[in-house]
Amino acid sequence: MQSRLKLRGLLVMTLLPALLLYSFFVIIPIFRSSYYGFFEWSGMGDATFIGFQNYIEVVQSPIFWRAFKNNLIIVGASVLGQVPIALGLALLLRKSNMFQRFVRSAVFLPMVISTVVVGLIWGYIFDLELGVINTVLRNIGLESWTRAWLADPDVNMYAVSIPIIWNYIGPYLIIFIATIQNIPGEIEEAALLDGAIGWKKLIYIILPNMWGTIKVVIILCISGSLKAFDQVFVMTGGGPAQSTEILATYMYNNTFLVYRYGFGSAISTMIIILSLILIAISQILMKRKD
Amino acid sequence: MKKLLAVLLVLMITLVACGDSEDNVEVSGDDVEEVKISIWHNFAGDDLRARSVREMIAEFQEANPHIEVDEQAIPVDGYRQRISTVAAADELPDIFLTYAGSFTDEFQKNELIQPITSLFDENPEWKDSFLTGALEPYNYDGELYSAPVAMSATSFLYYNKQMFEENDLEVPSTWEDFIETIDFFNDKGITPLAMGNRAPWVAQSTTFGAIADRVTGTDWFMNAVNQDGATFTDPIFIEALNHFKELVDHNAYSEGANSLDNTQAEQSFAQGNAAMMINGSWTISSLATSVSEEVLNNIGITTVPSIEGGQGQGNTITGGPGGGYLLSSKTEGAAKEAALDLIYALSNDNAQKVIAESNSMVMYDLDLNEEVVNPLFYEAFNLVRGAAFAPVYDLHLTSAGAEAVNNGLQEIMLGGDVEKVAENIQRAQTTN
Predict the structure, then answer these.
(1) Residue B317: how many CA atoms within 13 Å on its side-chain side?
(2) Contact status, residue A250 vs residue A238, Cβ threshold 8 Å
(3) Is the peptide bond before B65 cis (omega within 30 degrees of 0)?
(4) What residues in B contact A241, CB-CB < 8 Å?
């Protein structure tokens, strides 16, 4: 009994610093920010209390919902792009020979590049005249397919999703590989005896054993996509004419360019609420499959 | 127990490290008081002006060893945000560079800055050398808060001399000629106007402000800003927007104009990929450091074409007094004395000359040595002397209003509805 208590004391002691830092830099700011949402405040001078007005304006703003829709495009691109690609690569790269290690590092590489650099690189790739994509299209005779990928509102949201997919495949790949390698050898051997090879092995043995991890990765994908900011901010800044505005750029532009700190804070609070709702929905959907 | 001690120790180290206090004034052994002052500015780049300003600060530091100058050079793009963030936290540096107009108004209104009128009283000759109207943006109820160290001139028409000569074209001076020239270059497969409007202030600041002033006249605009008998849904403003739309409809801009940044557009124009470009005086300094002299000599500069039948004057240049240094209201005593000295050193007769000779416009009367500056700048400098100023839109509109104009112009470039854009601008200008 005494050792239990001791252990608990140790746990509290060791967790305390991290918890304090976390509350100080994350939890308290979140609540303060929703509190600022009740004020009309330019960031300087006096703030006036205006009740729910900012929140009502956020909910009624068509740009906010357009930004949310754009975020959903990124969520879709991440869940349908990052997860299958990372999973496929993990299945191909589960062994550890030189070549596979090389490919693994190559896939992981974008993750260690600063996201600002990623945005700049892809900004050049998408460039109308000098960009790689349009040059290739011109050279293979598909001149009519070339376009201003980041300026054309019909395609630019999909264009900015691609670097985000590319950027974050690496960590999911590592997680998946680790999970595959953790599947006990006995199970695989038993499956082999029962004749599960090739696709059968994938569907009946590997995927079921990974399901827990896949769920976690999907949640990471969703929350990561709702936080997306840096690459889009560097590539388009939310423009032109707010066509690639996502929730975070909308919040940033209102807070730091238009100096409506109260309104910006209300937007951030709405981002948190929407993220929680989306994650709850995905949890419910995935629970059913269990 | 040992573990508890260890945790406490870690916590204490963290707290001590954070609590490092900053004392402004300490008295040293000698009779001179040691002071520490901080200055923030946006001369972070590698262009001639930025280097000259940083040099002046270094010289000041050398000449005044008892003053410790804590200097922070912040890149232009993030400068406004950095300053407003520290202003929100009430941690402004002693001296910081500001922009004329609503940005400075906010600091003054919230009493975050203090006047530097005493500097002007002590140096009347210096005060009188500023051009007419130069000190107006910093004059609040008779007290002066800053001395401009720049002139913003945001709309010049740059053109490729060789292209105009080869095709036997006159540089357009009326709107009709302008449209004809645009059509001409389009027929030849040359982009008529280079523009990099990814950061959407560009179209507004360089092009639309000048067009709108020619159509509506300055008085209408100032009334609309104050919502005093004029609104942005007035037919006259719709007409101004339609003039911009006319440029778009005549394919004056390349398809990717909204995804290029301003520097890329400048380079593209300098390389001969476009025949003309409407841009500010900053283009001169950025081209002067990045292209060869031969390329530079091939660039001509003039005012934006006049618009017949418009309410405004024909040959205005949007602009006016530019940024200057502000003094935080919290700086007192010896630190204030030192700060005033530094502000003077960075804005006085000599400083204005150094800035002008680094190919940057100033609002100060001086004889420019043609030998020292580049020819394009010399031409522009004289162009500005002969022209009247028109207001720059985003310096007068509220930040929400300016944002709406910026986004609205991008919308028009993407084929959006002019009247809806006007409504959005009107709505944004009346919020807050």
Answers:
(1) 26
(2) yes
(3) no
(4) 200, 258, 407-408, 410-411, 413-414, 416
Number of domains in chain B: 2
Instruction: Tell me the per-residue pLDDT of A174-196, one tens digit each, with 9 for 90 and over.
Output: 999 999 888 888 888 888 888 77
- Classified by CATH at the fold level, domain A49-288 comes out as MetI-like fold (1.10.3720)
The owner of tokens 């040359």 is: B190
Contact of A181 with B288, CB cutoff 8 Å: no
Distance of CA B156 to the CA centre of its chain: 14
CA distance B91 to chain A (A): 11
For the segment B55-96, what is each residue's pLDDT rounded down to a tens digit? 999 999 999 999 999 999 998 878 988 898 898 888 999 999
Do residues B284 and B200 touch, judged by C-beta distance below 8 A? Answer: no
> Would you say residue B327 lies in a domain?
yes
Domain containing residue B210: CATH number:
3.40.190.10
Q: Is B420 on the interface with A (CB under 8 A)?
A: no
Do residue A240 and residue B197 have CB atoms under 8 angstroms apart? yes
What would the mean pLDDT of A139-149 be, rounded to a whole number?
87
Partners of residue B4 in chain A, C-beta under 8 Å: 13
Q: Provide the domain limits for residue B45.
A: 35-150+322-357
Say whether both B216 and B327 belong to one domain.
no
pLDDT digits (tens, 9 = 90+) for B222-234: 999 999 899 999 9
What are the C-alpha distances in Å from B372 to residues A181, B47, B280? 70, 16, 21
As a whole number, the mean pLDDT across chain B is: 87
The alpha carbon of residue A102 and the mean position of all alpha carbons in its chain are separated, in whole angstroms, by 25
Domain boundaries, chain A: 49-288
Q: What is the mean pLDDT of residues A151-176?
A: 90
